[in-house]
Write a structure and sequence with these properties.
The chain is mostly helical. It has 2 domains: 119 residues; 142 residues, Orthogonal Bundle (hpI Integrase, Chain A), CATH 1.10.443.10. Helices cover 49% and strands 8% of the residues. The strands form 2 sheets. The chain has a 3-stranded antiparallel beta sheet with strand order 1-2-3, with no helix packed on it. A two-stranded antiparallel ribbon has the order 4-5. Helix 2 packs across helix 4. It is elongated, with a radius of gyration of 23 Å. The termini are far apart.
Amino acid sequence: MAKHNAANTRIKREYFDYLKEAMRRDETSIDAVAKALARFELGTAHKDFRTFNREQAKAFKRRLDADKNVRTGKPLARATVHSTLSALKAFFIWLAGQPGYKSKISYADAEYFNLSEKDVRIAQASRQKPVPSLDQVHHVLAAMPARTDIEKRNRAVVAFAILTGARDGALASLKLKHVNLAEGVVDQDARDVRTKASKSFSTWFFPVGGEALQIVTDWWQHLREKLLWAEGDPLFPKTQTGLGATGAFSAIGLSREHWSNAGPIRRIFRDSFTAAR
């Protein structure tokens, strides 16, 4: 079975460039499209996109219905199926207008990626997700160690999140200059901070009580007064790795760089809440 199709790779590269430069999509959105296309190609044994027809679309929908979530073992959520199929439909509609594909692909065949109206309603329904109570968050903060710089940073991440309600992407990209402790406000400047829809706005500290404000204050002062970091340095810097005492690579401190994504922020929350059970 083929694992690669050069022609497909070339046209996908053109499409990703179209999404980025013409449609102004961000990297996260483009990555989601790339995953949808990779899933489709796997199902067709990497056949050339020029062979696309309605039967391939219908067969792919049936495979999605049968696929399981790798993590949970349950059927794929309707929202996942809907976003995957929508990405594929948009791609093949675009592809049908490209040189070398116009005579091969029918616009109408892309419509066969549509879900039923019932499934679309299910996929688009808003659901309230379970969240920890303030008491639970305070319990986690009290249980988190704060001996090393890394531990201090991790605890400050959780405290700052509950104090401001900032998104994980924003937490990973905030700089010291964005926080005004005296006024109790965070300037989420979209020129620097990864905000939703790249919008700039200010966030005032919530009166959550407990030690959250003191933890954030202590962390900000630790960076500015003890480590002598500048306003342009990250509020929550990435972990620096190097050769540890055992001669193996391990975490050795903080780097004056931002995390490239929110993955480490999510791991901090997962690990800290798991440890506090």
